[in-house]
Design brief:
0% strand, mainly alpha, TorD-like, 11 helices
Length: 203
């Protein structure tokens, strides 16, 4: 067994579920969902927890959403004519402008961790979808070794924690949000769970 394989095995079932949910949010926020993804979302079930209920709500909306409607919604929210209703970038949420210091800090931290931008992606790396994917990758060791909980906490607290909950709340209440309102709720609840979990690791 190679060292990298050993690293993969060390990831707990709970951490795999965390990574899966980060990846799931990243997927939904990176492009409009096609019918296959909508079918996958509509097949999800949840328990009585806040996150479980948010997932159930997302499944109900996905069940009655067609790909064309999801694409219109995605474009209105994130692309628009000139710009969408929301600008899902850390720099914008933290400074009011795009391509500011938070992006430069993220690029430095990405380089230190061996994380590179995908060749076919041209938007700034501090967008919410990319950050969700980065967290997932760090948890399961996609960028080399798996990140320790402390390292995950440092990255999250610096690049995600200060603004992601605010973004997801905005997504919940956005004028053009229907499917994405339910995604916003799930994202917000998940960020609150992560914040509390990381806070408890400091004890």
């Amino acid at each position: 067994m190679t060292a990298s394989e050993a690293q993969q095995i060390e990831v707990s079932a709970e951490d795999r579920l965390r990574a899966d949910f980060y990846n799931f949010l990243g997927l939904l926020l990176s492009a409009p969902p096609d019918q296959l993804l909508l079918d996958q979302v509509s097949g999800l079930s949840g328990d009585d927890t806040d996150l479980g209920q948010a997932i159930q709500a997302m499944a109900r909306v996905a069940k009655v959403t067609k790909p064309a409607a999801a694409e219109r919604e995605f474009n209105a929210l994130f692309i628009g004519l000139g710009r969408g209703e929301l600008l899902p970038y850390a720099s914008f949420y933290l400074t009011g402008f795009l391509n500011e210091k938070p992006l430069a800090q993220l690029r430095n931290d990405m380089a230190a961790r061996g994380i590179t931008r995908a060749q076919n992606v041209f938007e700034p790396e501090d967008n919410i979808a990319s950050l969700m994917e980065m967290m997932a990758g760090m948890i399961v060791g996609r960028f080399g070794s798996t990140a320790s909980l402390e390292d995950q906490k440092v990255f999250w607290s610096k690049h995600i924690g200060p603004w992601a909950t605010h973004f997801y709340s905005d997504l919940e209440g956005a004028e053009n949000s229907v499917l994405y309102a339910s995604i916003g709720t799930a994202g917000r609840v998940f960020m609150e769970i992560e914040r509390e979990a990381f806070r408890m690791t400091a004890a």
